[in-house]
């Protein structure tokens, strides 16, 4: 069998709509950093003279920046889910432009504070609207790359803004002395004008961005208050989202502990301001490395596992940072800490974008932004008093003296907290229960798909079709089988439940609408029993013969219908099925994603026991299918089931084509010299 190569996907920036949004975001990020630099400098300039007043004035700007998120975050999220996101972003940009432009014109400290609060309030509407829009513009498999680019410009624009600010300050000084009319101007004036113009450019880009889906939430949506409560309920009630947010906040708290005490800790290690700067920079260098190289290196590892693992490692590293009294090692560990934080942040953002439905996304992102800021504020504020309260202690062991100060304690607490959160996230969200994490990790580092679970090592190829009722699985799996047979492949087309003798009986029990009293656990076990028989009698033998197996439904159906639909513990369903199948996982799962209200109306005849479940049941099933696909994008093809059948067929053929084995084995080619004729 020849190697199964993958076709190179196009870069996410080739997508014109995303490119436009990303450009707007980059310009805004540059503007935001310029804003922080210019406003803190202006506040300092306006209160020159007394060091204490000056410090308080600059601190006031930071407080004004944080405050609106705490107070207005929930409202902004509901706004992003309620109104047209393009209009929200466009209006926000115009408002930011006007407010920032007014700062150098008015030029008083009071107005700086008011304007900062106003700009931050507007930002609160812009950011969740943007975050919730990204998953609408890029395909699911490119969402991780899109988030990497977003984070890159958010932080990468900071040094560019710093250089620009310096240059614009020089321009400000020159203008002040050369143009009499501008003699009263503060040198930060040009920076603020450029900052305002950045928002105007973004307004233009957003206005001309046609790819954002239109929404008119004002017609039938509930009240804003109801929407806010609905958003909180959703975040608290959704297992995955709750796990992601707790994990990300844990990572934030750990980061806050470092920011809070880094200065005194570095000082205690004998480092000055330069060393403090290096430690600070190490966090960002690490984040960039984690986001780009870490995620690429571990691309075969389940994203849910990697999320928990990254936070756990970050926690352990933080404890090590607290205990190792060597500045060079501390800097190296800080890079690792940043890498873990970068990985966790990107995965968390990506999974939320994939998992959360469009109508809830704005509120979820906004909840995350607000709670992250509150956590950061709280931890940074509490870290130093706690460190001071603990004081400095020298532990003596014979001749050895080990210094353990308050800053060490804060870092240890932050590290332990992150470790606990990471372990909980790993357990809470693990989608490969029963499969050793270390084996998975080693395989991922080697760039291999985890061997113990995939069907990769068998000579054949295993493709499963999944989706809700009437999504088109039977139609498409039949068409795929015909297409493959046409190319000379030996194809076994099969389905669940009911492809074996025992299976046929089980299918009758499982789908008989009269069988009303069947318990959820019994149902899960019967499906698993059918699957065990199916794998042993049909699928495995065919794969070992080198056949291509196409199954209409497999394990994911149990995770979606019995796990999410019947609300059984997903770990239990996963374990039972891993045991029933001996860990056999398809090479490719095609998810035909169709809204249940569309799929159910396609079905003819009387509804069977499962089809007659209420719509909410089928909605939970659909959501779980999508979540499963999102957690392992490399192994799934998600197609929109509302597309015309021919278009779906083409998408499936394109993807299957990438992983097809050579129909004539290499040895036969060597002997006969024949070239296989594969039609596209
Ligand atoms: N893309 C499509 N657009 C419109 N109708 C479709 C599409 N795909 C399939 N159908 C029609 O929908 C009905 C159900 O299709 P199919 O039996 O393939 O779905 P299924 O997912 O296998 O259903 P089940 O859940 O019963 O197994 C059929 O009448 C089929 O012709
Ligand atoms: C494999 C499997 C199936 N189901 C449900 C899903 C459907 O309602 C029926 C199968 O009918 P189909 O027309 O053949 O698609 O069974 C399930 O609940 N759990 C499973 O594991």
UniProtKB/TrEMBL annotation:
It catalyses: dTMP + ATP = dTDP + ADP. It is an enzyme of class 2 (transferase). PROSITE patterns: THYMIDYLATE_KINASE. Keywords: ATP-binding, Cell membrane, Kinase, Membrane, Nucleotide biosynthesis, Nucleotide-binding, Transferase, Transmembrane, Transmembrane helix, Transport. It is found in: Cell inner membrane. Its main location: membrane. Its EC number is 2.7.4.9. Pfam families: MFS_3, Thymidylate_kin. It is a multi-pass membrane protein. ATP binds at residues 467-474. Residues 465-652 form the Thymidylate kinase-like domain. One of its GO terms (molecular function) is dTMP kinase activity. The chain crosses the membrane at residues 21-44, 56-80, 149-171, 191-209, 243-268, 274-294, 306-324, 330-354, 374-395, 407-426. Coiled coil: none annotated. Phosphorylation of dTMP to form dTDP in both de novo and salvage pathways of dTTP synthesis. Belongs to the thymidylate kinase family. PANTHER family: ENTEROBACTIN EXPORTER ENTS, INTEGRAL MEMBRANE EFFLUX PROTEIN-RELATED. NCBIfam families: DTMP_kinase. This is Thymidylate kinase. It comes from Nonomuraea guangzhouensis.
């Amino acid at each position: 069998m020849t190697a199964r190569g993958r076709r190179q996907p196009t870069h996410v920036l080739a997508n014109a709509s995303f490119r436009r949004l990303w450009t707007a975001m980059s310009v805004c990020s540059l503007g935001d950093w310029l804003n922080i630099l210019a406003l803190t400098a202006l506040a300092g300039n306006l209160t020159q003279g007394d060091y204490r007043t000056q410090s308080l004035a600059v601190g006031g700007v930071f407080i004004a920046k944080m405050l609106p998120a705490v107070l207005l975050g929930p409202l902004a999220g509901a706004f992003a889910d309620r109104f047209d996101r393009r209009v929200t972003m466009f209006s926000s940009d115009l408002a930011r432009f006007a407010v920032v432009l007014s700062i150098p014109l008015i030029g008083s400290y009071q107005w700086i504070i008011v304007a900062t609060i106003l700009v931050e309030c507007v930002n609160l509407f812009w950011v969740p609207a943007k975050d919730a829009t990204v998953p609408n513009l890029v395909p699911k498999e490119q969402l991780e790359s899109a988030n990497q680019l977003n984070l890159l410009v958010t932080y990468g624009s900071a040094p560019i803004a710093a250089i620009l600010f310096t240059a614009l300050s020089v321009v400000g000084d020159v203008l002040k002395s050369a143009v009499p009319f501008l003699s009263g101007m503060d040198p930060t004036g040009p920076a603020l004008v450029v900052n305002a113009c950045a928002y105007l450019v973004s307004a233009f880009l957003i206005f001309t961005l046609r790819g954002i889906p239109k929404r008119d939430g004002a017609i039938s949506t509930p009240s804003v208050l109801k929407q806010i409560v609905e958003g909180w309920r959703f975040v608290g009630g959704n297992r995955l989202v709750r796990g992601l947010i707790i994990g990300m906040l844990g990572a934030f708290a750990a980061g806050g502990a470092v920011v809070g005490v880094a200065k005194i800790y570095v000082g205690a290690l004998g480092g000055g301001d330069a060393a403090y700067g290096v430690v600070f920079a190490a966090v960002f260098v690490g984040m960039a490395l984690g986001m780009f190289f870490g995620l690429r290196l571990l691309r075969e590892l389940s994203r849910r596992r990697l999320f928990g693992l990254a936070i756990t490692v970050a926690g352990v590293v933080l404890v090590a940072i607290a205990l190792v009294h060597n500045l060079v090692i501390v800097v190296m560990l800080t890079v690792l800490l940043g890498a873990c934080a970068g990985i966790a942040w990107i995965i968390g953002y990506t999974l939320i974008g994939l998992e959360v439905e469009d109508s809830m996304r704005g509120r979820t992102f906004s909840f995350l932004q607000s709670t992250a800021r509150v956590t950061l504020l709280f931890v940074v504020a509490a870290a130093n008093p706690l460190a001071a309260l603990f004081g400095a202690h020298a532990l003596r062991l014979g001749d050895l003296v080990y210094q353990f100060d308050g800053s060490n304690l804060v870092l240890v607490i932050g590290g332990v907290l992150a470790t606990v959160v990471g372990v909980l996230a790993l357990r809470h969200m693990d989608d490969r229960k029963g499969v050793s994490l270390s084996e998975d990790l080693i395989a991922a580092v080697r760039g291999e798909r985890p061997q113990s679970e995939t069907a990769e090592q068998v000579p054949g190829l295993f493709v499963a079709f999944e989706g809700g009722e009437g999504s088109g699985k039977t139609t498409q799996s039949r068409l795929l089988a015909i297409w493959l047979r046409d190319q000379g492949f030996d194809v076994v087309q099969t389905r669940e439940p009911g492809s074996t003798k025992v299976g046929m009986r089980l299918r009758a029990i499982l789908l008989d609408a009269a069988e009303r009293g069947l318990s959820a656990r019994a149902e899960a076990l019967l499906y698993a029993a059918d699957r065990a028989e199916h794998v042993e009698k049909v699928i495995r033998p065919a794969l070992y013969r080198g056949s291509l197996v196409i199954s209409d439904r497999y394990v994911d159906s149990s995770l979606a219908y019995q796990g999410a639909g019947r609300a059984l513990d997903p770990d239990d369903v996963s374990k039972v099925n891993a045991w029933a199948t001996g860990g056999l996982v398809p090479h490719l799962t095609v998810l035909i994603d169709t809204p249940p209200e569309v799929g159910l109306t396609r079905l003819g005849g009387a509804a069977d026991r499962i089809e007659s479940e209420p719509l909410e049941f089928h909605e939970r099933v659909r959501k779980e299918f999508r979540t499963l696909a999102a957690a392992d994008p490399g192994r799934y093809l998600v197609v929109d089931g509302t597309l015309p059948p021919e278009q779906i067929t083409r998408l499936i053929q394109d993807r299957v084509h990438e992983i097809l084995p050579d129909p004539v084995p290499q040895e036969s080619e060597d002997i006969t010299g024949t070239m296989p004729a594969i039609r596209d």
